[in-house]
Amino acid sequence: MIYTTQIVRLDGLILVASVDDQQAQELGELKSQIRQVVKRITPQSEPRASIENSKYTMHYVLNDSLCYIALTEKSYPKKLALTYLEDVRAEFQTSYKRDDYLSPQLRPYQYSEFERFIDRTKKTYQDSRATDNLSRLNDELKDVTTVMTKNIEDLLYRGDSLDKMGDMSSRLREDSAKYKRAAVRINWELLLKQYGPFGALGLVMLILIIWRFW
């Protein structure tokens, strides 16, 4: 289930926030944690991430100095939550001008009318078992973008940064490429070891035959 959705500028200004009324009181205690996480996000941070605590998962998509946030139950599929946020991001950035939503004169909750779109979209994503959502999830599984998962307590209280998560992601991709190259080299070495003697013997015989009949 998706409990709350927010669009926040990296300077901390909330442009729009939509909260499930039934969960509003319970989620109040997490607002400060969400604010602290947003403060740690920079333009160089991992562009898509899911951050867990014991009961909820906070997902975000970062684009053009805006952070699109969804808070879901912990069992809600991460890929599906990020697809939902991508839909919200695409609609918001299509509906409003960049110069307007990045203006320093903007007031908090300036785009509250956008809640209507969020609420409509959220309804189509609420049941992660629905056929349409399973189709979206299957499509997202084909996406090679790495989704970093981090424990929210580690992030807030042990000093780990979202930039560090991005560095970890880059190192994982580099290591993956390095191991792939090593695997190709090892396969060639095994082939040479297995079939090399036969190839060498065949080459010697061919040279002898050519020399004899030349």
From TrEMBL:
TM regions (residue ranges): 195-213
GO BP terms, alphabetized: endoplasmic reticulum to Golgi vesicle-mediated transport; protein transport; retrograde vesicle-mediated transport, Golgi to endoplasmic reticulum
Protein's membrane topology: Single-pass type IV membrane protein
CDD domains listed in its UniProt record: Longin, R-SNARE_SEC22
Residue ranges constituting the V-SNARE coiled-coil homology domain according to the UniProt record: 133-193
Coiled-coil region(s): none
Main location: endoplasmic reticulum
InterPro entries per record: Longin-like_dom_sf, Longin_dom, Sec22, V_SNARE_CC
Top-level division of the source organism's lineage: Eukaryota
GO molecular-function term, one example from the UniProt record: SNAP receptor activity
Record domain Longin: where: 6-118
Localization per record: Endoplasmic reticulum membrane; Golgi apparatus membrane
GO cellular component: endoplasmic reticulum membrane; Golgi membrane
UniProt xrefs under Pfam families: Longin, Synaptobrevin
Record's keyword terms, sorted: Coiled coil, Endoplasmic reticulum, Golgi apparatus, Membrane, Protein transport, Transmembrane, Transmembrane helix, Transport
Family: Belongs to the synaptobrevin family.
Protein name stated in the entry: Protein transport protein SEC22
